[in-house]
């Protein structure tokens, strides 16, 4: 779904954007993105039964 994005807290988001623009965000950072997206999916799935 399109709303599963990697939006971090304000200052962390700016730091991540800088790393991406500087080509410093690599495969070592991918687990952070996967964790964030999975948290969003889990929240949505947990809310289905309500």
Strand content: under 5%
On the 0 to 100 scale, the average pLDDT is 82
User: What are the low-pLDDT stretches, counting only 5+ consecutive residues below 50?
Assistant: none
List the secondary-structure elements in sequence, H or E.
Answer: HH
Specify Rg, calculated over alpha carbons.
13 Å
Biggest sheet statistics: none
Q: Based on helices, strands and strand pairing, what is the structural class?
A: mainly alpha
Q: State the end-to-end CA separation.
A: 21 Å
Tell me, briefly, the overall form.
elongated
How many strands in all?
A: 0
Helix amount: 55-70%
Number of helices: 2
Would you write up a description of this structure?
The protein is mainly alpha-helical and 50 residues long. Helix content is 60%, strand content 0%. The radius of gyration is 13 Å and the shape is elongated. The two termini are 21 Å apart.
